[in-house]
Amino acid sequence: MHLANPDHEAPAGPNRVSSAQPSDPRVPTILLVEDEAFVRNVAYEVLCSAGYRVLSARNAADAVRAFRDHTGEVQLLIADVVLPDRNGCDLALELAAISGSVRAIFISGYPENSITRRGIQHAGWSYLPKPFSAGSLLRKIKEVLDELPMQAG
Predict the structure, then answer these.
(1) Can you state the angle between helices 37-49 and 134-145, rounded to 10 degrees?
(2) pLDDT surpasses 70 at 44
């Protein structure tokens, strides 16, 4: 299994997206979008170690490319609320427009942000404040993935 290395990151562009395992419909695929390299790489390692297939992106544009490249495969978006090119909520809405629905966990180190001000207003969306432990991240993922199936639209 190849894990992201913070000292040797891929160059800018769509090839920044990497996957930990080959596509297997029984293995949940998570799209992880985080602009802070350390947080992204640690989360990537935790998720891969837990058996998830992970697509990792540094920004919303790369995330949209990865999502389109893996149409129908992504079961969960984990996105920072504050990204350099878009906020995480807008990214989730854009991905939902592509697929009909998207489950999401938003992460943020800011106690006051668009998620906490407005609250989670979409089915299948949740929030996890930074810093978080590996255990709390994995519990939140299980909670969101175990919710009732989402309806498209």
Answers:
(1) 60
(2) yes
